[in-house]
Design brief:
Elements (H helix, E strand, L loop, with lengths): L3 E4 L9 H10 L5 E6 L11 H10 L4 E6 L7 H7 L3 E5 L6 H10 L3 E6 L17 E5 L14 H15 L4 E5 L7 H6 L4 E4 L1 H4 L5 H13 L1
Helix pairs in contact: 2-3
Amino acid sequence: MPATISPSILSANLAYLERDLRACESAGADKIHIDVMDGRFVPNITFGPVIVKTCKKITRLPLDVHLMIVEPEKHLEAFVEAGADAITVHYETCPHIHRTLQRIRDLGAAPGITFNPATPVEGLRYLAGMFDLVLIMSVNPGFGGQKFIPSALAKLRDTQRLLQEIGSEAVIQVDGGIDARTIAPAYAAGARDFVAGTAVFGHAGGIGAGIASLREALVK
């Protein structure tokens, strides 16, 4: 499966959001990643359905919404109505994870499940068929610009093995510290969808150069 690049607007210039989204689209980004934080599950507050709705008006790229919030089941409808094409929820925040994932699918979005760096992925064994994407956090969520946690590579390999064991074709996504140095090792470990914020929006050569540098690093 080829690699997909999902720029995270957490690192975009929100004063020029339309410009940045269009630049991502022109540069060949595959999706737009929207990090929703509530100040409770993670120590920051970011976006809500209004930003998702705004992005939907600007870009044709799929919107990948990552809910870093407590009680995500209370907000699924609002995010799907705003334009979310995929919704990823945290394993740590969903005591009734089957119900939550099924609700996302019933609403017409692709369901995903996320694991923090220290959370084992063994729970996936009991969720076969319930998810289309597994997001492995390679930083502790809450802030952009953090460094990749090296142990995430072993976790990516564990996730790949487990998915093979349960016969799942779900895509493995990785988020946190992804740049031209870390993307190739993460790909080798099993990741196929790469969320990148600073490496795209903070690249000295601009957004297009940032996305190009990630793709170039994968073929070296």
